[in-house]
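Q: What does the assembled structure look like for these inputs?
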Amino acid sequence: MGYGRQELRLVSIKEFMLDRPFQESLFACSIMLQKHMSDLLPGDFSDSKLVEAMRYCVLSDGKRIRPFLLMATANMFGVETLDTLNAASAIEFIHVYSLVHDDLPAMDDDDLRRGIKTCHNKYDEATAVLAGDALLTYAFELLSRPDTHQDAATRCDLINKVALSSGFRGMAGGQMMDLEKQDQDEISNEDLAKLHRLKTGELFMASVEAGAILGRASAADRTSLRNYAHDLGLAFQIKDDILDHQGVVEGSIELDETIHINPNKKAKTENASIVDVLGIDNARIRLKMLEEQAIARLKGFGDKAKLLRELAEFVVERKR
Amino acid sequence: MGYGRQELRLVSIKEFMLDRPFQESLFACSIMLQKHMSDLLPGDFSDSKLVEAMRYCVLSDGKRIRPFLLMATANMFGVETLDTLNAASAIEFIHVYSLVHDDLPAMDDDDLRRGIKTCHNKYDEATAVLAGDALLTYAFELLSRPDTHQDAATRCDLINKVALSSGFRGMAGGQMMDLEKQDQDEISNEDLAKLHRLKTGELFMASVEAGAILGRASAADRTSLRNYAHDLGLAFQIKDDILDHQGVVEGSIELDETIHINPNKKAKTENASIVDVLGIDNARIRLKMLEEQAIARLKGFGDKAKLLRELAEFVVERKR
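A:
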């Protein structure tokens, strides 16, 4: 380990999170998370390539917005950042598992993710299915462990929230809806909003709620935070659509001609994006509205919600 | 619901489980489980085919040995059978998810399972991946719920045990090892035993341990039960190999010529079976030895272990 627990304790909440420019806080969280996730996935486990593939997917570059949501929310209620790392890793494992499975040839058939080869492209399809399965399973193992939280009832709350948001009533249901809607000629504005809430919004909401659970937030605070994450999730999706519209894919590096794009990729009917449905100008207006609405949800928290407020700005202003 | 909780309470442990021929107990458990799993997967949920596919996979015919292991073990410690149904369903959801993913074209590429079309064959690959994902996720949601057990620490124990046994150190790791060994010319006896322990044994062990956790069994009793399940899992696998050798595939109906077998199925190198490694006569001797050893593990439990003892006989004597 590069640093001990004691050492990191010295970098207290205030220093790490609140008294710095936002991008530094985001970066610091992402570094801590990266280290923690690397420790959780032993590089030398067995002679199998399963853990190697899990590490490949998890430790590649990512914005880490969901774990940051969890960490920043827990922070508002005085939870030491180090004490959020297991739960934050579990949320990221679930996000990464969903990317690995969504990228499969039978689903979105993507060759690149975050600028590098997708898991099935780097290894093979069977390994990608199993790496996703194992990451999802590991997330729940992690959440059940006493070093995630000393109180078992709190751990069960976390597990229940995360499972509900990522299962058939949440993220998996959203991906199914996405695939089903691709076969239809057009999608209504309501269906598109529902699809985005399930595919993206639910895990955003689970991330802040997990932070709130760790921080023993009141029911009223949890509702406000949930509403914030709901708006943020939609804003995130609209921003993605706007970036796509501008020809830049979320999380990818700038494409240049040396990067191999799968020539066998099926020409799939992609779902209409919000930009297609609303037009680019109205999409920008809706994005701004959602940003303001998300920030307004945080009114009651005062200065404590600085990071979440700045995150909303970051999500809306980001260039990729 | 066809029957109320009160009504089923009347059918007490003794009546249901111990005072009947073994096959009736197994059948009764399987019927209760079927009803419970059907209630857990709402037939009318949303307009998506995801839940339909989950129901298709879960409610098809199966021996239900893993949930029976859990129910029979909990029964030994006086746990009312009805109070085991959530945990037993979770175990079966995880078993079914693993079958659905293992059957995928990128893995074992099977067209039939339990005598009917596999999930990707009935629906499509994307649906099969998502149905598996959603079943795995639902298992953990279920285990985290207060109606699974009133004590949160017990629920966390269940989740931890089940997750460890099915993740990269358990079942998923076993499936990866299986795929990796298929590319090699031969497999050692030890590697084959390890593969079977991971792929089959771990979930068998988790099933009895979950029953023991629900029954608040002592550490010593848990160890004996775990050893029993370890031997039973190996015996189960050897019996499968012997049945395969005799041309009968586990869980399939008698094949007749009207059943369509995928003509595009890749001719994969299958792993050497125990029959290949030991020869049929030695495999039968080893099977008998494991049965006796499994039953010997139960010595300390006396009459209470009647069902587990009979299950070992059933596993070894079964015709399919």
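Chain A touches chain B through 51 residues (CB under 8 Å).
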